[in-house]
Hints:
It is a single chain. The protein is mostly helical. The protein has two domains: 23-112; 162-284 and 293-430, Helix Hairpins (Orthogonal Bundle), CATH 1.10.287. The protein has helices at residues 7-14, 16-27, 29-66, 69-109, 114-153, 155-283, 288-357, 361-387, 392-420. The radius of gyration is 63 Å and the shape is flat. Keywords: Coiled coil. Residues 80-216 form a coiled coil. This is Cux N-terminal domain-containing protein. Pfam families: CUX1_N.
Amino acid sequence: MESPPSVSERDNTNSPISVVSAFWKDFDLEKEKSVLDEQELQIAENQGSSQKIRRKLAESTRNFKKASPEDKSSLFNALLKGYQEEVDNLTKRAKFGENAFLNIYQKLYEAPDPYPALASVAEQDLTLSELEIENRKMKVELEEFRAEAAYLKNQPTTTRRLEERSRNLEQQMEEKVKEIVEIKHRNLAEEIQKTLEILKEREQLLQDQLQSAKEGVSNIKKLHELAQNQLFELCAQSVEERAAKQAEANLLMDEVDRSQTMLLGLEREKGVLRSQLVTANEDSGNKKSDNSDSNNPLENSLIAKEKLISELNMKLHNIETTLSNEREEHINDVKKFTAMLNEKEASIVAMKKELQTRPTEKIVHDLSFGAQGLATEQIVHDLSFGAQGLATEQIVHDLSFGAQGLELAPSGEEAPCFVHRRAPNTTLNNWTVTEPMVFFFPPRA
Length: 445
């Protein structure tokens, strides 16, 4: 004989969670999903075929409307048959949809409301989380109590063990500190040696640069003197050529003045001869044959004067052309000499700028002296400071800090030298370029 179910079993059977769980287990949602998918595919297929048939019916209706009365009687039966088939298809689709809806409706109609079950599950989950939190707290407290009890039991043994461990750690730390100090001293010595070598190399490099700068200054002096000599020679040559051309131009201008005076005299004489010829022609109107011999010399003289005038005009034109050509040559020479002078001045300015960027002998000396003093002071300071350290961490920190400071010292000491002694002490800054005087003789009017 079976025993009756207990109270907890009856409560579980009648609880909302068990009812909802039993229903959805029997419902088989995955199976219903596959059935619904098939129905959805069938509905989509029916909709596609119905759309095609409707397009055909619309086209048949348009053809029927456009047809003549004689053809409408033959097309009416086919059109009516098509509409009847579409009505039958729509009826089947509606029936299929109704059956599908009723099927799922009948299955879901008996489904219990899942909200009470979900609310009960949420409440139980919240209660369970609170219980878990409280359980973890209790475990932590229990572990703390156990640890405290064990600590109280083993306190004397633990104290002795910790004291022994502390002594061992102190001894190890002292040995490690000594080892670190020795390593740092060796590293400092090596770094100092490297720094001194670098400073020596830099000093040698600066001395080489200074030597090359001195050689450059001497070369620039030579080039400057050579350029000034060339400029003076060109200036003197230009002045001499200009004086010769001016003298030649004065001679040509005097000759032009004489030619113009002669031309004016010939013009006046030509006018007198023309007036005499006209007077002679008027007075000897009736005596042509007798006076023809006397007029011929006058005409010949007039022709000779005109020929002389044309020759003088041609000569005057040639002189003016020569003067204009010489004036253009003179202007071109002046431009060429000015351009050469500008080029020389630009090269001198560029050389001055290059010399200003190079270090002087005083800068090299100050740099080497400052670097050596800094290296010596840093070595003494680091060694004395490392020997006086009492705490391990402080010693290590100070030694590492001293090494870093020594490494950074050369670059830090170089900067003030180049900042405060930027202007090189060379004699090139006192050079002055004597600009040659260029004389320009304007053409005479």
